[in-house]
# Entry
Amino acid sequence: GQNIDQPTEMTATEGAIVQINCTYQTSGFNGLFWYQQHAGEAPTFLSYNVLDGLEEKGRFSSFLSRSKGYSYLLLKELQMKDSASYLCAVGDSNYQLIWGAGTKLIIKP
Amino acid sequence: GAVVSQHPSWVICKSGTSVKIECRSLDFQATTMFWYRQFPKQSLMLMATSNEGSKATYEQGVEKDKFLINHASLTLSTLTVTSAHPEDSSFYICSARDGREMNEQFFGPGTRLTVL
# Structure
């Protein structure tokens, strides 16, 4: 079957760094996406990885290892506004997104 | 980036009535549109996939006669919740995919439906 696993909730301190992990097992692979979703709002795109390695975009970085079925989202210099759910999604062989349940990130002052 | 709009943003209706939600791609042609539902504190749940000019493909457990999807043009898809009941109250989100960019979906802002 298809499966995306990520932690349910994480807590971090303002100004710190946090890493959100995602492991996946899917039928086919056409890239891995990270989305941010604030409560009551639709998801917004953060990153896309299709090749192994690290993609850096400002305070956010995303890493992919296809052989391990593993990705992480790294958030640096955390700000209070980063409190949100972070969704990991994998494009399967039909280019359909398979979604993880999301990781709720709580930022404390 | 590509923009997807949804209308209405929120709607309150009485039990037994039907509600139509529109999803529009504003600056690109969406060959495929997706409809999701999200209950509080839960992840997105794909309801159906619609391709322009053809019937929608519904996920297991989603009643196609209750959730009518029409994708009549490359920029518009509609979801009609027929005979809505309180358990249909949810956050409905559409996304659209550009035929040239198969990997990315662009999300609308969502529609919050409350059925009394």
